[in-house]
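ugh ok so i messed up the first submission bc i forgot one of the chains. this is the corrected input, ALL of the components this time, i swear. 814 residues overall. if the numbers dont match what u have on ur side tell me asap before i send this to the collaborators (the ones from the other lab, u know who)
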Amino acid sequence: MEELEQLRGELQAAVDPDQTMIVVCHGTGCVANGSQDVTQALKNALAEAGEDIKVMPGIKTTGCHGFCSRGPLVIIKPANVFYQQVKPGDVEEIVAQTILKGETVDRLLYKHPQSGDALETTDEIPFYAGQERVVLQNIGQIDPTDLEDALRAGAYAGMAKALTAMQPAEVIESVTKAGLRGRGGAGFPTGVKWGLAAKHGDVEKFVLCNADEGDPGAFMDRSVMEGDPHAVVEGMIIGGYAIGANVGYVYVRAEYPLAIKHLEMALDDARALGLLGENILGSGFNFDIRINRGAGAFVCGEETALMRSVEGKVGEPVPRPPYPSDKGLFGKPSVLNNVETWANVSRILDRGWEWFAGLGTEKSKGTKVFALVGKVNNVGLVEVPMGIKLKEIVMEIGGGVPGSDHFKAVQTGGPSGGCLPWEDAELPVDFDSLIAAGSMMGSGGMIVMDDRDCMVDVAKYFLGFLEEESCGKCFPCRLGVPRLRETLNRFSKGQGTVEDIDDLYSLAEAIKMGSLCALGGTAPNAVLSTLRYFRGEYEAHILEHRCPAGVCKDLITYKIDPDTCTGCRACARACPQEAISGEKKKPHTIDESLCIRCGMCMESCKFGAIQVF
Amino acid sequence: MLNLTIDGKKVQAEAGWTLLDTARQHHIEIPTLCYHEAVEPFGACRLCVVELRQGDNSRLVASCVYPAEEGLEVHTMSEKVKNVRRWILEMLLSECPASEAVREMAAEYGVDSTRFEVRNPEEECILCGLCVRACAQVVGANAISTVGRGAQKEIGSPYLIPGEACVACGTCVTVCPTGAMRARFDRVRGVPEVVMAKAGK
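and heres the new structure output, hopefully the right one now
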């Protein structure tokens, strides 16, 4: 342990904190927007400027900074000057102005959405100011492919403390006292789970990391693995030590190639330094981690199905009991936690349970990472203290809803969760409040919807997702989810009766109570939560044959307002059905019998002359 | 011995018995479709659900896999239980309307028609997986598999490629609760080699 701290000290001393460092985000979002080209352009420009620069700045590529809608992001340290939507063509100016003269390039700065002021540094930007970064503390700071950089930021300090100064039972006690609850969905107390497996004594055991993130729109775990893989590795070593396991498995979906690559590099580097493998840090504790690629089945995120998949069997859930803490992977006591939970474990051991227990609410400690997506200005990855109001996340950190002062609904918890209405804007976001409101925390997807989103259609979407992803083993889920969707399909065509709504409740109850695993057990939530808060919208479809949001194709018509139409012909050109006719410079009309209600005319109209009824 | 109550009646169970074992031992009827004594219980059809009550808490569990425990209060015919069974049976009526066994069981629960769309009026298979488990656990041939996922799931040979693993013993046809396996037998077995030889292939 002394050697590790000595190495850490040397590494930290080798870097001058005042030296200019150009940080380029290489998270998946920024890479997709061309950040690799920006990095290359920066290298070229710096080489070209050559002798004009007194002290050559370093370039560091990091994981996701979270502000994905503004990527590619370039941050100049130590002043934290924040440049957004940087293109390779902007690089020359950055080097000439900021690096050589120390002046900011104003046009690349982020503008405050309300005041329009240019904000210079990350700390001033509301998106970052409202966050509390614990799990994400190193992401965006460190190069995830460089163990030395991770060590500088404190990686493996918690593990060293656990392995050399604490008994396994003390580690479990720390995690229990910290109040950490599983970040994968259900919020089961992590320390309790560990204790259940540890009590089996000296038998073979396993720890597993659930990295089979599959909720639509969710990318929290991917970002953590890509941006700070060592936090996950460290957490798993600590967990292995605590319960007495010598082997860990990371079950990660094959669709995450960058996460797998960074994890593999982290494992190799950690092994080379003696942080993983036999006799870690001279403690006598042996532990190694293997990576298992999943083929992308959503149900394999369910713990028993995940374990069957690791065993090489069909990824279908099996009934509990026996619980995995008694009979899990290969029939041995096993502990499965998700990526974010393992990363939290590293922080708790490093900074102490007292610190962690001071964050969040009474029953939901710590922070939660959310993937904020949908109709929100600041799409991206955010980490907030538990108990923060829903409104603060969406309207302040998220920068609000484009063109509106409120959201219609926020969907949390993925397909298992539910939709919360604007009336719940003040709702504290923690495990128990979300459940009471008919949704759930889930793994951290947060989809913002506005008045143009139809709640019947949203429920149908999630049911369609689950219908495809149901493993088909148990009857209530395999048969029931498609039948729920069949009923909603009729609603969206304006068919059905109010009695059908009662039937929906009854069938939903049967699926919830009767299903084998949590996929089926929570599948009806999309229907139940939208019915709870938006029943009027359902009734509008059934009784008035009307879709208030203007989404359900069978219930809407597009019309051109003759007073506003200028006859510019833009809509007629856009229409794939050639359903729009009219003379140039005279009001046009839509032939309803040809119209397929795709909405392309409405998008093409610059004058707002096309409306949906 | 473990002491528990089923539908208000005090019963005893041996350690290792499931709730279904216990109920049947005491002549309490619980319906099943995917259960067979010859193979490991699977917990898939969920017709055998029973309600466990503890104070104000209540939950449904599959009796074929849930172990008997001391002090359990089990209800086999509560409203919650019947609601699950009725919906499963109504959905089965639309999914595999040709199955006599399903129709009979549905009638017992007062379900004689379905509100849902019937896709294939000839369908008998309920996808209980008994054929798969019998072939694997009793015969040891592993010639049958479920293929696909969710609503697309079907019974066939692994990867739907007829293999040579089938020994044509007929066990799958015998355990099939609906008779659906009769029509699927050739799909699993493929064309026997003798026939192939005669055809000159």
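quick check: The helical segments of chain B are 19-25, 79-95, 100-108, 130-139, 171-175, 181-189, 193-198. that seems consistent at least. The mean pLDDT of chain B is 91.
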